[in-house]
Amino acid sequence: MGLNSSSMLQDQDVEDIKKETGFSEKQIKRLYIRFLHLDSRGCGRLSREDFGRIPELAINPLNERIIDSFYFHCSDIDEQEGCNFREFMKTLAHFRRCSKRGQNPLNTEEEKLKFIFSIYDIDKDGNITKADLLKILEMMVGVSIGKEQLELIAHRTIQDADADSDDAIDFEEFKKVHIEKYTSLNSGANLASYMQGRFSMG
């Protein structure tokens, strides 16, 4: 069941979402109430404008890309209609902290990395290019850094991670850089806490 405009949250929906996302029943029901409050059209789907009213997103420099992520698995028709609650929860699962009782398939470090990679891979070609990085950097810093300096940062980032010298970063190269970064931190920071800090809805 997709939880579309004609359906309400049923016990079976809760159980299915628990299995898919790892959220508890209490968390699912709380987020469903918030979902309904955001649903300005009352149709069981969130538009991009609805997402734009989420305070956590409004202050995030990558808000447009994060909003895009809620539609990564939607067809063009579905995207026009909006994001239903089940897809909403599946996307939020990537931001959930890993449970001590075990990871959910959507919440492994591998899946978290794939999700972050998809945020950076703007043209969805399976590689992060200099053009992709420039767009991300521009979103993050605005006009506080000149274009020439941003291009230099993007070039060096590609150069440092591009093991096969094809002027782009594929997922395996991206993963290698992140693993090295987070395993080298003495503070105990990890990918789960990083993503929790990017966007949280409870």
Automatic annotation (TrEMBL):
Family: Belongs to the calcineurin regulatory subunit family. CHP subfamily.
Subcellular location: Cell membrane; Cytoplasm; Nucleus
Entry protein name: Calcineurin B homologous 1
InterPro entries: Calcineurin_B_homologous, EF-hand-dom_pair, EF_Hand_1_Ca_BS, EF_hand_dom
Highest taxon listed in the record's lineage: Eukaryota
Keyword tags: Calcium, Cell membrane, Cytoplasm, Lipoprotein, Membrane, Metal-binding, Myristate, Nucleus, Phosphoprotein, Protein transport, Repeat, Transport
SUPFAM superfamilies xref list: EF-hand
GO cellular component: cytoplasm; nucleus; plasma membrane
Molecular function (Gene Ontology), one example: calcium ion binding
One GO BP: protein transport
SMART domains documented for this protein: EFh (SM00054)
Gene3D superfamilies: EF-hand
This protein's record includes keyword Cytoplasm: yes
A Pfam family reported for this protein in Swiss-Prot or TrEMBL: EF-hand_7
